[in-house]
Amino acid sequence: MSETLPPCPECKGPYAYAMDSLLVCPECSHEWNPEDDSSGSVVKDANGNVLKNGDTVSIIKSLPVKGAPRSIKPGTKVSKIKLVDGDHNISCKIDGFGAMMLKSEFVKKL
Length: 110
Fold this sequence. Notes:
Layout: E1 17-19, E2 22-24, E3 31-32, E4 57-59, E5 77-78, E6 82-83, E7 90-94, E8 98-102, E9 107-109
Antiparallel strand pairs: 1-2, 2-3, 4-5, 4-9, 6-7, 7-8
């Protein structure tokens, strides 16, 4: 084979092989289409809008913050978000609170 196949997007295993139009990982049994440009998961807000790095969002629910005397109020505007992997998939800075991680289901895109 002259072409190099990409590693598995799930387990990063290097042993992927082609099966029809899909690639298959023998280590974790994950199947994916190499033509899909979605390298990673798509992050959506509470309304189902797709979020991208640099978007501006608004908080939709009062969010308590550990160690802070008050919570983040609904309607708080957060600009220049950064998408990351994990349960809390938005990294941002909020005025009065500093840097923090948010879950995408608690924000809406502006």
